[in-house]
Amino acid sequence: MRSWLTYTAARLALFAAAFGVVYLFGARSWIALVLAWVISGLASYVLLSKWRDQMSTSVTEWSDNRKDKAVGERLVHGAAREDEIQDELLRAQRERDEGAQENEVENAEDGAKADKPAK
Hints:
This protein is an all-alpha fold and 119 residues long. The chain has helices spanning 2-24, 29-47, 49-115.
């Protein structure tokens, strides 16, 4: 981020210097602003190319790191949610199976009692 601040400060300084020169030569009002903007843009293209490249590199790296982190977090969150859903389904299936086994045992015991002759 330091390179961004350095480049921006240099651009502003070039604009101020260009505006001062244009103003000293007699340009006033919006014409002075436009001329200073054009002159400072051309000067920064030539004079600040190294800083512009450094700024571009740092901004690109920052953006890539941010993007990778965001995608990674989404993947981890999605995988965790999928695991929770699978655990819930397995738990429900296990409870259903245990309930069915208990019903079978109860039905078998009831059937066995019904088969015994009364004394």
